[in-house]
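Good morning C.,

I know you're traveling, so I'll keep this short. The sequence:
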Amino acid sequence: MIVCPQSVEHRRGSRCQRLPGQVVKMSGGDPERPQFLFVKVLASWGRLEAVTQQMGYHPQYLDSFLKTQHYLMHMDGPLPFDCRHYIAIMAAARHQCRYLVNLHVLQFLRAGGDPQWLRGLDFIPPKLRNLNEINKILAHRPWLITKEHIEKLLKISEWSWSLAELVHAVVLLAHCHALASFVFGCGCEQDEGPGGRGSLKPLSPGNQCFCEATAGNGCSQELLCINRKRSLDSCMELDSLRERMQRIHVETEGREEMRLLQQDREEGLSPLTDTDGEVTGATNLACYMQDPDFGYQDFARRDDDQTQVFRVQDYSWEDHGFSLVNRLYSDIGHLLDEKFRMVDGLQSSAMAKRQGCEPSVFKRGIWNYIHCMFGIRYDDYDYAEVNQLLERMLKVYIKTVTCYPEKTNSEMFDRFWKQFKHSEKVHVNLLILEARMQAELLYALQAITQYMIS
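The tokens, ready to paste straight into the viewer:
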């Protein structure tokens, strides 16, 4: 265990910014015991956050997540500590995630941040404010980011970013956008109290499905209609897809995933909202973002022919993104890669068995469906499997949490997948978190690569 000694003073931004005597190492011990990880979080943050409680259902993943987040926020890196937390505030505000905004406002002030910055983007340095454009694009339509966006940030003489600073900022943005999806998807945002602590009620036993406690609550009319038509529609969808796939030439097989997105739109797989469709408290966070009406748009609805499908065999995390991010921001690539692998390796045999498939097949179906919504294509995957593996209600939930997390409410989490245990629902939300984060990173890192070689 490594502890910062009281006698050592660190230059701001160069070392872990901790109070004397606080634990800074986020690994070790028995990762199978969530209680051990909870103690470390309490020692580090002074309280047990709702997100940590939810991830505690999967302690091995939680350990990897905490190491990554700790490194991003508190260890050596190109960006000052107050700027890191302000960037996190900007990212969370894009999805009106009060939970994360309040958390990082507190950390921003503890890091010595200027309270005037909390009045909004008009009161921060132009260098930080210039990050708003890629924050907006990565949060909602990452396929639109180009090397010109990167060049603009790097070549503004007085307020220019270095490549290392920009990579650190991009990882922070992607991390917080994806974490906002998890916060909304698991209901953490809805459980935030007046004091901004965001604490959930005590966790249900690991072998009990959380939604069983709400068995008396009926689904919304929209979900009931979807449920009644699910079986018939699924058969029709699969038959139609098989017929079309037989007619597709090898050179045009890449259009299958585009049809999947188009099919989602035609079948009304739109975001679920509460009765009034409003996002509570959105106006309070408006000062941290510009162009609030800019949001997700179906990739299949594109009118710009210049926007190409992202082909993973041309630019992948394993072969390209990992080495670039690790070179410009030391060691973060290893931590991110461990986290991606960890979520893929989580046990999900019972969950997959209920869906009638192998665990790896079920998880890959979810992962590829999320990437498909962001225009990322795997040539070796048959996208017709998505309709076989994922029920329509599950697809609606995944799309809402991924693309419109601010329109999710806690009842959706409770009412979905009655046959799943609470830990299994959290597992699905972890897949959403990591798949979305990797999608954003792929687009941003590809744009940085294109700038570097141009």
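Safe travels,
E.
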